[in-house]
Amino acid sequence: MSKDTKNKFDKIINIKNKKASFEFEFIDTFVAGLMLSGTEIKSVREGKVSLTEAYCYFRRGELYVKQMHIAPYTMAASYNHDPVRERKLLLNKRELEKMEAKFAEKGLSIIPVRVFINDRGLAKMEIALARGKKIHDKRQDIKEKDVKRELDRMRF
């Protein structure tokens, strides 16, 4: 193997939903495959993905992600994709049934946490079954982060 083919996927693509951990309390996480069309995977490899308003929902026993923005691929002429179309998530049947049963509970949501390219070059999405945080929970998290930051400062 030459150096070029060996390091083909070394550029780490790791797009995170930074607001998700602040807005939600994660109960369970799953890794799902993304069903992408033509130019979408090229845009994902360039890191042009936004998860800020994305959410997941069930339709006919299958899981879809909505409002995930993948920017159009700049090198494509007329065969570009719709940036905010619904995309199917690929999970095992057992995982889907488990998640759908928990999703039926009141107050739970399925949110995308991060998008990444695995070692085989496939686009994957980490999703979390989550419950929205209350205002006092958010304040508590901020206090804990401040205390941790102060302790780290004192050590150095």
TrEMBL record:
Function: Required for rescue of stalled ribosomes mediated by trans-translation. Binds to transfer-messenger RNA (tmRNA), required for stable association of tmRNA with ribosomes. tmRNA and SmpB together mimic tRNA shape, replacing the anticodon stem-loop with SmpB. tmRNA is encoded by the ssrA gene; the 2 termini fold to resemble tRNA(Ala) and it encodes a 'tag peptide', a short internal open reading frame. During trans-translation Ala-aminoacylated tmRNA acts like a tRNA, entering the A-site of stalled ribosomes, displacing the stalled mRNA.
GO biological process per UniProt: trans-translation; trans-translation-dependent protein tagging
Keywords: Cytoplasm, RNA-binding
Name of the encoding gene: smpB
Top-level taxon of the source organism: Bacteria
Protein name: SsrA-binding protein
A Pfam short name: SmpB
GO molecular function, one term: RNA binding
Any one Gene Ontology cellular component term annotated for this protein: cytosol
Protein's cellular compartments: Cytoplasm
